[in-house]
Amino acid sequence: MKMASLPRHHGVITHDVYVTNLSVDANEDNIGRIFQRYGIYHSISLEKNYKRPNSLVATISFYEQREALCACSEMNGKLVEGRKIFVNMRRQDRSSDYVDHSMGDGRDSVMNNNVVGEGILLVTHCDGPCTFWAQLMSQEKTEELLRITEALLHMNINTCKSVQGPPHFDRVYAAVFSEDDMLYRCKVLSHHSMEKSLVQYIDYGNREVVSNSSIVELSPQWSMLPSHAAKYCLYGLTSACKDSDRERYAKGTSYLKSQTDGQYLQCQMYPQQDGITPVKVNINGVDLNAEVLCQGFVIETVPAKTAPSALPAPPPPRGNGAKGGPPYGDGGSGGPPRGDGAKGGPPYGDGARGIPSYGDGGRGGPPYGDGARGGLPYGDGARGGPPQGDGRIGPLRVDSGRGGPPHGARGEPSHGDGARGGPMVLSHTEQQQQHIFPSHPSQALSCPSDKDSTDSVVPVERDPRFDASSSVKIKELESTLTAVTAERDAALLELSRVKGKGKVLQLEVDSLTVKLAETNISHKMKNLVEGIKRVKLFRSQFPTDDHTDDLIEMAIGLITDHKNKITVTDSTMITMVKEVEAQYRACQAVIKDCKHKEELPGLVSQRDESRVELHRKLTAFLENTSKLPLQEREEELMNILSKLQATYGDFLREKLSKLPGFTRAVEVYRDWRAKKKATVSDMRTATNTCHNSVSSAFQMLQQQLELDSSSSSECPSGLVNLDTLLSRLEHRIAEEIKVSDWEHSPDATVVSTILQTLLAAVEEEKKDIAKLREMKSYYSKLLYDIEPWLLNKPSVEELTRVRKMIKALKSRLRHKIADLHDLEDSDESQGDELPTLHKQLAELRQQLHQASTEEQEELAILADLSKNSFPELNLEYPEFGIKNYVDYDGLVLLGCDTTHFDMVAVKDSATVFKTTFSGRDAVLREYIVGSHGGGSQKEFLKKAKDYKALGSGRLVPLEAIFFQKNGCQCFARTPYYKLNAGGLSAKGEASTEAFYKLLYGTLEGLCVLHGAGLVHGALHPENVFIGEDGYGVLDFNWSLTPEQRAGTVKTFSNGLKFCPPEMKPGDPPTMQGDLYCFGLLILWLHFPEVNMSAVDSDGVQYIPAYGVTPTLKLVLEAVLQRNPAQRATAERLLQSDFFTETPLVNSEEFEPETLQLRPRGLSPSPTSQGKGILKNGTAKLQRPEVVETKMWKSDIDVTAIPLPIESDSQESFTEQMDTEQISFKSVDIKTEENRAADGSNVTPTGDLDIFPTKIAHRN
User: Fold this and answer.
1) Pairing of strands 41-48, 117-126
2) Within 13 Å of residue 313, how many CA atoms lie on the same side as its CB?
3) Are 275 and 15 in contact (CB under 8 A)?
4) What 3-state DSSP class applies to 701?
């Protein structure tokens, strides 16, 4: 039978469900929410119902027929928006349930005739108990699938062209599968939203909803290839789960998957139906169809009912022609083909429209093997057709189906082979008619030849005995048919009645089971325990007895306790203290703004009086505050707050738009409480009575269960009624819960209002307590500051003495310098005078440095007093420079000169000098203010002050600045560092710990600069020094603009150029550029003697494939990115594994190793495994102690920048550094010259095999 075609939407087969009698207010969204639980649907459409004008009709297109059938079964007749809806399948979908009767009926001879081929299948996806997707195994298809897979593996989702807009339904794409993040070919089935689509992977059959961004275009080379997965079903079987039993359906699917997983299926294939190929499967000699059928997840298919047809006509002649001509092979419009007949032609294999055929009957034709819809089959008559053995023609004894009485049914053996019959045995009469209806087309030797006319039918002579007895036989068969039909109808009616009665009994059994469970003692006790638990909660929330604390009333009493209540707003003493303090501050401000020294005495006298009054008020305030029980009061508030939250948590979570005043909320609550108390009290009294009765009964039961001989053997009367007592208590508890559960009643708002009002009052008082503590601490410090100066004035005698000493030392120093110049200009023999004079000069400078340090200490004291207590000091002693000290935080030294230092120019620099200060080495840097973009002296000092304010131990500190007399020449004093990064690497004796400390300190310095919004712009080894603790100290030229700092690009001997690839001449430097240079610094430290000039086409530095630990490589990949926006920040790098879990070397000396280069793409040789950059041990480095560093929060959103160092498998990268050792003392690299000398292949400089791969995260 030819199946009706299914509806298609853009090439997608769907199964339509019609929903009628919908309300006119229905829309697609509402209908979709109702039917989406049955499965994924393609679309929903609505249209008017012209038969019923006040209703709508909806068409829902499901992808799976099972889901559509389930929706019809469950939703048909349900009420939706007050209307009874009718849900049915579309006609062509329902017709698809028909399956050829020959499928699964056991007649192998017929089935074998329908086999279209054999093959080996590999199952890729199971989507039902008897349906699956599989790949047909062949060498050609396997090779093609491997080529597709390999091509998809080499595709990168980031580089592929993503689809623009919604993907098309008729195109083949590649999508990322969610389980392994790999690309597979797919087709789009539907659009779930603007961002997501349902796809089916065409080479495997499974489906999933994916994001449109994960769908990419495929080249025609791969998109034009056919799919490798096809859908198959087990021949003659269909799912037994047509209802909502999804669990059973899933179990059936799982069973089929377990049987076919990893197995090669030997299959016999039958003609496709709706794109699905039925197969009979054999796995290692086991019939899979039979195995699945035995499990009960599937059933055998049954043909659809048809109406009986008229008597068959005689067989046609065999010929070949059109419009009635009987062709031997295939008939067209009226031609009777031998294999299949179509609408008018009597085929040999299939009968059409009443003409007998030799094979299978369709639409009225009596097939030789099976009769359908009126045809006369030789083997089996189906649904109305008179089969051989069932009247109208002759006594042919073959089985019949639904229309003829089968021989073999109801006790009579059948001579045929069909449904409900026995093996076919031909009688003498039947054997004589074999030439009329042969059992196989090859036996039809008595048919007319091909040259007979096609427009006429030659009658076949029949046996006279057959014609004489046909009338009697027909009547006998008709009477038998009537009796059997009546008997069948009665049996069906009885079966239906029994089934209905069985359903009623099952419902009764279920009801009794529930009742039995409810009456079970354990069930009752469980319900009682849960009910009593809720009753306890309600009673604790709203107690009615005198011995239970009412938390709400306790909180109200605590808040309204004005005697112990802590408040700040209404405190008179606090107001008075604030007024006196404001008056004192105003006096100080007037003195600070005073410009005339003669006005100071009157202002100072007024200020001193105000200070005394402030001292008196502060003393009184602190005495009274110390008497307040702040700690005890705060503990009470915290205690009641925690109890309220634990007891009334659900009420507190209710959102209220506005809270009333505290007094009003208390009044409303107490009125409501008084009304509810009487009802609740009576209910609780009744519950207590029942509870006491049950408790007494259980006590008696316990006594009776004791094994003591003194126990009474008689059962007390209370135990007899225990079941009644339990039921009564359960009822009372339920009633009390119903009355007391105010959380789920309209009264919940009243309770929530009072509780949230109480919490707000408690929180407000807690804030007052915290504020009072802050005021107490602030005023205590203020009292401490002003108390020493109530009767005293600051003294400047010590500062005056120091300044006199400095003046004398400067005079002596000038004379000694003059003597030195005279002695150097003299032509006389100097003898020991010159060394003696140098020694005296050194001693004088040392004394002068010490005196200068003492002067700065005294100035610091006076500056602090000037800011806090005595602003008049600036006007009284202008010669001390107190205002200058305050303005620049003691950075600028007055009266200092270069003659106070023994300066030696640093090599290769005319502006940097080495000197000593107070016995330690220092550096003086010369600046010319007003040139090189430095701006005015004021701007210069502002930059210096801002840099000093950073206060980081990882930046070279700025100690002091002094100007020469001309005002343009300036010198800045900084500490002297003996070694920088270049010197550390040049020594070749550094340990892994030293490198780690150097990098860690440098990175911390970058964090401080970037946090303050500053860009270094010139990070390279010469600007990184080694501090006394071994950590890196970053040198920063704060006097220059960013463009000036980045103006000079440093290139070192190993070819590393410290400049980010995106930076062009004249461009301002960026923070991302600093991080790129930090990555270059890492490479320079690890490979100082290796040619590192190799870069890619964009100028990005390659990362070596060896000699770098995995954790350090991740750091390099995070900063050596082509795109600056993808580089990690300094703050994020400090959180990486390399800077948090870094192994250190032992103190032992390391031995130099040879650096081994390897070809691109090859793994390290076994001999190089276990060796690292340096020979090191496994000691762990602890995080450095905290340095006094001000960390500014960076303006950059570090979370928005992808950091490759965060990996799902970080454990694999936390290897010890001693697994990859290598030395810097000797490097065995062949240059072009020595390669050419020994005859080996020459590798161009700048493209060594040391760089086999580019960075993976540069897209």
Assistant:
1) unpaired
2) 18
3) no
4) helix
Strand pairing category for 371-372 and 264-269: unpaired
Q: Which long-range contacts (CB under 8 A, 24 or more apart) does 1182-1188 make?
A: 1183/1140, 1184/997, 1184/1000, 1184/1001, 1184/1029, 1184/1031, 1187/952, 1187/953, 1187/954, 1187/1004, 1188/951, 1188/953
Helices (H), ranges, 706-832: 717-720, 722-740, 748-786, 797-825
* Cα 935 versus chain centre, distance: 52
Taking alpha carbons only, the member of 1101, 1053, 1029, 1099 closest to residue 1251 is 1101
Q: Which residue has the tokens 């270059």?
A: 1080
Per DSSP bridges, beta strands 360-362 and 172-176 are unpaired
Q: Which two tokens mark 491?
A: 């049996």
Q: How far is it, in rounded angstroms, from Cα 757 to Cα 622?
A: 32
Secondary structure string (H, E, C) spanning 27-40: CHHHHHHHHHHHCC
Residues contacting residue 768 through CB under 8 Å, at least 6 positions apart: 566, 567, 568, 569
Count the neighbouring beta carbons within 10 Å of the beta carbon of residue 237: 23
Pairing of strands 371-372, 380-382: parallel
Structure letter (DSSP) for residue 1244? P
CA dist., res. 662 & res. 960, Å (int): 61
Q: What are phi and psi of 173, to 5 degrees?
A: -120, -175
- Phi, psi angles (nearest 5°) of residue 680: -70, -40
**Contact, 169 vs 12, CB < 8 A?**
yes
In this structure, how many other beta carbons lie within 10 angstroms of the beta carbon of residue 104? 23
Q: Which amino acid is at 1160?
A: R
Closest CA to 1125 of 1257, 937, 984: 1257
pLDDT, averaged per 10 consecutive residues of the chain (1259 residues), comes to 42 80 87 85 86 85 84 87 83 39 37 73 91 88 86 82 85 90 91 88 93 90 90 90 74 91 88 88 88 86 44 40 37 38 37 36 37 36 37 34 36 37 38 36 34 38 54 81 80 75 75 69 82 90 85 92 81 89 94 90 93 94 91 93 90 86 92 88 90 87 75 59 83 89 86 93 93 93 92 91 93 91 76 85 93 93 91 91 90 91 85 91 89 71 92 92 86 91 61 84 94 92 90 90 84 86 89 93 84 83 80 88 92 87 42 33 34 31 38 34 36 35 34 41 35 32
Adjacent-strand bridge partners of 928: 969
CB 373 within 8 A of CB 353: no
Side-chain-side CA neighbours of residue 998 (13 Å): 26
Residues 6+ apart with CB under 8 A from 35: 17, 41, 44, 60, 71, 75
Length of the chain: 1259
Q: Which helix (H) or strand (E) holds 136?
A: strand 131-136
Identify residue 355 by its one-letter amino acid code.
Answer: I
> From CA 1123, how far away is CA 65, in angstroms rounded?
51
Per-residue buried b or exposed e for 22-41, using 16+ beta carbons within 10 Å of the residue's own CB: beeebeeebbeebbeebbeb
> In whole angstroms, what is the distance from residue 1070 CA to residue 721 CA?
88
| Spatial contact of 637 and 558, defined as CB atoms under 8 Å apart | yes
Cross-strand partners of 1144? 1179
For residue 541, what are its two tokens? 């929330």
d(CA 1255, CA 1259): 9
Q: Which of 798, 940, 792 minimizes the C-alpha distance to 856?
A: 798
- The DSSP string of 715-728 is PPHHHHTHHHHHHH
Whether 232 and 132 have beta carbons less than 8 Å apart is answered as yes
Find all residues with CB under 8 Å of 892, minimum gap 6, and list them: 884, 885, 941, 960, 961, 962, 963
H helix runs in 400-463, sequence order:
428-432
| Separate counts of helices (H) and strands (E) for the chain | 33, 35
Under 8 Å between Cβ of 372 and 352: no
Burial of residue 738 (number of CB atoms within 10 Å: 0-12, 13-18, 19+): exposed
